[in-house]
Write a sequence for this structure.
């Protein structure tokens, strides 16, 4: 019954803007071993302090389009004139090494990855209500009314895909949401474990 | 997106004798809310200190057989002349109230319940190796060699059903096994959560 190292799990974390994905994930990543946070590729310019291969893989548009043609992205999209995508190779390499790989991506991309990789776990992080989401978006104080309205409408669409998600984490109290996401990753290791139990 | 109270999950915890099911469960039950530990029924006599409705439901054989005829057990078996069974009604009542219900039962019964209730989670708690299992069984110091041999042979059969289990918890370090089982229950609440999210 020795436990052999096997492939990790692909875990997609998504949810509406303002749900607190980044905060929840930051805490989970600092507390769990053997988890790799996937780095996206983008054609946008690095901002001051951003490092290639740490914050993003910064690519020319030519290189990005080449990768699209070669089907080297798990998902990709264009957003206000810049391209963003999840390169598939580093994800597969880390899974192969036994790491659980986390993709923190937009709902649209998340659904694309899940369709392509049905074995992936799709986790949706949501605020406890649309009212609270709106408060949080306004609370940032940086968003104009029309931006908030657009984000709210987008959030309603994203929540409509609830049946496609494997797990829902309600981010009401941050500490609970962190423990929920940790539990999902830990439980998945026990599920996968059944393939790694070897009877001596 | 309000979280409404819904039906709990049925969680079957099984594994070979000597795997440490009871110890792991004791810790998990003391740390988690909204969990109900199912009480078995038996025709055997109460031992000193045992209370009806706490340790077991103590039944006459006549009453037990009546319940068998009425199909009122999730599973039942005879063991050295006494009958043991899991009454279905209290399980369903507690699930209905939103509790997660834990059945700690033998592998044979666990497989019967899983066949009857495919929505149940079947968790197998196992020692890290057969060698360690044998040490643990001998370590009790109370078992004759032939009893240990019989238990080891039974354990090997039980481990052969590995594909039927939803989750495997390897009880090597107790604290890790406790956290694994807690994670499985907690993650299941997020899975179920998707049916309880109501969009306002």
């Amino acid at each position: 019954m020795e436990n052999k190292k096997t492939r990790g799990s692909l875990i997609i974390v998504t949810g509406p803007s303002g749900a607190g994905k980044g905060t929840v994930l930051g805490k989970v990543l600092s507390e769990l071993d053997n988890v790799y946070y996937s780095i996206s590729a983008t054609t946008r310019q690095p901002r001051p302090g951003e490092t290639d291969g740490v914050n993003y893989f910064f690519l020319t548009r030519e290189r990005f389009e080449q990768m699209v043609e070669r089907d080297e992205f798990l998902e990709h999209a264009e957003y206000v004139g810049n391209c963003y995508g999840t390169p598939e190779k580093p994800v597969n390499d880390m899974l192969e090494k036994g790491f659980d790989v986390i993709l923190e991506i937009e709902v649209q991309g998340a659904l694309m990855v899940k369709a392509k990789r049905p074995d992936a776990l799709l986790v949706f992080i949501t605020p406890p209500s649309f009212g609270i989401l709106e408060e949080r978006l306004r609370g940032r104080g940086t968003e104009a009314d029309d931006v908030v309205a657009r984000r709210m409408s987008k959030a309603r669409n994203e929540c409509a895909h609830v049946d496609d998600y494997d797990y829902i984490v309600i981010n009401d109290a941050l500490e609970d949401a962190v423990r929920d996401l940790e539990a999902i990753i830990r439980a998945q290791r026990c599920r996968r474990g059944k393939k790694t139990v070897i009877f001596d």
